[in-house]
Amino acid sequence: MGLTIAFIIIAIYSTALILIFFYSLAQLNLLVNYLSNKRKNEEAPKFNLLDPKEIPFVTIQLPIYNEEYVMERLLENISKIEYPKSKLEIQVLDDSTDDTVIETARRIENLQKTGLDITHIRRENRQGFKAGALKEGLEIAKGDFVAIFDADFLPESDWLKKTIPYFKDEEIGVVQTRWGHINRDYSTLTRIQAFALDAHFTLEQVGRNSKGHFINFNGTAGIWRKDCILDAGNWEGDTLTEDLDLSYRAQLKNWKFKYLEDVETPAELPVVISAARSQQFRWNKGGAENFRKTVWSVITAKNIPFKTKFHGVMHLLNSSMFLCVFIVALLSIPMLYIKNSYGHLGWVFEVTSFFIVSTIILFICYWFTYKSIQGSGFDNFIDYIKLFFTFFSVALGFSLHNTVAVLEGHMGKRSEFVRTPKFNINNLTDSWKGNKYLAKKLSPNMILEFALMIYFLFGMYSAVPLNDYGLFPFHLMLFLGFGFVFFKSLTAKA
Which residue, 23, 33, 25, is CA-closest to 314? Predict the structure, then answer.
């Protein structure tokens, strides 16, 4: 390997490591915000729902698409929401293309007979996908406030009573609640997803919101002020994460968001790796698309402080960290050989300490978010250590898949909104077998993921002849991560 190539590899590797380090510092700052907010007891103006004059009209929107397995559960749950019937309407925004439409219509008709104001809204086409459905429903929505629930969400009956009062403050455009997980312990895959989402819904959402930095409506389990949606330019379907897009446009127009960590809205996590893949792809590509669309508006905004801009940029770059991680992983083996071929470049390898420090920072941050939900104590800490390194390994295993998504997003390649299949999985005895919405084809990335598993096995082997075990733990996690993703994909046939 020539010295010029070695320097190019070192430069790319170091840049990716430093970006990861900046991301971890941003997370550390959010942890400080999160912990300081825990000690605050904020009083906020609230509607008095005991006074009929203060009860606002609410529209609940349920955007659905081919949801055979969860429609009955969804409608039964939503029909139990406690709120004056004269001030509540429910819109079932049904873009389904299969025979679930007939059964959904029958169930809605039965609910209408109970006096519930619920309508079945069908479109001629799926233009704009979920964003298009929400926008079309909004045109005829009666409510001043619009609550949105995806098909796998199960809000408690008093959900509106806990959330709608905060809109007494006329500057608040959105109230978002924390996601819960009804099938957290179903498998390793669901535990990992729950772990990552818990970190987002505690550390990140509270950490940003408590200091007035931009947060995002999470696509579901939240309420919008109708005027806020319209003022921000309404729903747009030009990215795969329409929720993040509208959130930033609203906050750039000075609307405030209220995040309620204490209000949990349970939902179902994907139990098959193909479903997790499609969800991860959409979220990560959408994040990159929103960076491309919005970052300049954030940087040049006159109405927000520098720190909010910094956190906004890092937030929009969240998904791009997978690209940085993948670069670091891929180049780590050439770097091992460079280190042993060019002794005089030894000082360069101090940059590797950035990755170690970044990992330690994330380990600390995630522990605080883990214990806020799961509790502290020695046993929980041991469970946390095991879960953290399992999560870290599998996240590395997803890095190729998510890097493809991020690159497509940054390059502006358009793709269809691929929904995440729902399973109606509530406990360990439920099975996903036979779900007709599962992807039938294996992911083309699988071949590369198998090749990368072998590549990092070679990385572990290289430590022996080179007598350099510094990167061995990293290569072991990469080997296990890509192996997990490959074999899970292979055995699930999806």
Answer: 23
* 306-316 helix and 3-38 helix, angle to the nearest 10 degrees: 120
Tell me, yes or no, if 95 is annotated catalytic. Answer: yes
Residue 415 and residue 289 in contact, taking contact as beta carbons nearer than 8 Å: no
Which residues lie below 8 Å from residue 106, measured CB to CB, with a gap of 6+?
none
Question: For the chain, how far is it from start to end, CA to CA, in angstroms?
Answer: 40
Longest CA–CA separation in the chain, Å: 81
Residue 395 structure tokens:
């996240």
Q: Write out pLDDT tens, residues 13-31.
A: 999 999 999 999 999 999 9
Of 187, 89, 183, 193, which Cα lies nearest the Cα of 142?
A: 89
CATH code given to domain 44-272: 3.90.550.10
At 20, give phi and psi (nearest 5°).
-65, -40
Task: Enter the tokens of residue 434.
Answer: 């036979």
Per-residue model confidence as pLDDT tens digits over 282-321: 999 999 999 999 999 999 999 999 999 999 999 999 999 9
Q: What's the confidence (pLDDT) of residue 408?
A: 95
Sheet of 58-64, strands arranged across:
118-122, 88-94, 58-64, 145-148, 222-225, 172-181, 256-267
Residues 6+ apart with CB under 8 A from 120: 92, 94, 104, 105, 108
Of the CA atoms within 13 Å of residue 487, those in its CB half-sphere come to 9
Residue of 94, 95, 150, 245 with catalytic role: 95
Task: Give backbone dihedrals phi and psi of 23, rounded to 5 degrees, phi first.
Answer: -60, -45
Per-domain residue ranges of the chain: 3-35+319-492, 44-272
Please answer whether residues 116 and 90 qualify as being in contact, where contact means their C-beta atoms are separated by less than 8 angstroms: yes
**Strands 172-181, 256-267: pairing kind:** parallel
Q: How is residue 418 written in tokens? A: 């691929």
Q: According to the model, what pLDDT value does residue 401 have?
A: 94
Strands of 328-443, DSSP E: none
Query: Per the residue annotation, which of 94, 150, 198, 243 is the catalytic one?
Result: 243
243 catalytic, yes or no? yes
- Residue 313's identity, in one-letter code, is V
- CB neighbours of 413 closer than 8 A, spacing ≥ 6? none
Q: 172 in helix, strand or coil?
A: strand
